[in-house]
Amino acid sequence: MHGTVSLVRSDGDQIRPDLLELLACPKCRAALTQGSGGLRCTGCAAPYEIKQGIPVLVPDDVNTVHLEEEQNLALMMKSRAHHPEEQFNLGQWSLSKREFWAMVRSVATDSPPKRFANIGCGFDPSCAEFERLGHTFVNLDLVFDMLAHLKKDCGAASCVNGDVNRIPLQTGAFDYVVSIDLIHHECERLPELLASFRDLLKPKGILFLEDPNAWGLFQMAKSIFMPRFAYRSLRSAYHTLKRSAHRPADYEFPTNVWRVMAMLRELGFEDIKCYPHTAYPTVSERSHRIYRALSGSEYVRKYHNYHYMLSAVRS
Ligand SMILES: [Zn+2]
After folding, report:
1. Cys staple from 46: which of 41, 120, 121, 192, with CB 3.0 to 4.6 Å?
2. What spacing in Å lies between the alpha carbon of 78 and ligand 1's midpoint?
3. Residue 69 dihedral angles phi and psi, to the nearest 5°
């Protein structure tokens, strides 16, 4: 671990200098300084709180409907771990995560120390492994409680509470940017979002992306061929009838793997790769058998999986 750890006060109102230098004001993007009362922007002088060792860099104009939605989603994800009928599905979700991180490890084999940013990290404990290897791994999420758990349960050293629409991290500071299941939450502003990921990366830094695929085997009939407004109203009616604990918000919509690859090319990424993987969550075991029968084809596993997984190098 870094020598700076010993300098941290135990009351958790200070953050490590190596994290501080990676932070930026969400309003004006200037660097932040640390004082006894928390953080302050060196540009616009906006003050920011440090809560339980976590800098709170959520801008005042954050979309509160959106924030509430994400908090509900976080609660729902935690509660469903206890439902027996969810076990098959949850197994697929965790397999999907394992496959994603195996892909990251297969590419990001450089010797430490490297800097990772996991944007919209949720409760993903993968940071622990990379920190053990000597990397810096910044977890960013809009939901504070997820980060507090990550810090408490996994010892995550670098957690930042912030909004993906105004990422409070320094530009050009990261070797790797990770985004899992996030960009479909901002499906109306994909080019801006992907550009902000690019800007976080150093030249030759790599973006690792996973997202629900509009061209997934069991979702393309709805997400590609049905008009979006019709899909949204049907989806909403379905969840009302089913009295679902959580219904997808209107701003969520699966993204199109080919469109995202084309956007990344336009944004100046190169060496864009799509990876095959086997997990297919959200479907019944019966549909899953159909998927397995078809998934002998690498093409299906790459482009018609529930998720697609990409890596792309900033030129
Ligand atoms: Zn500022």
Report:
1. 41
2. 35
3. -60, -45
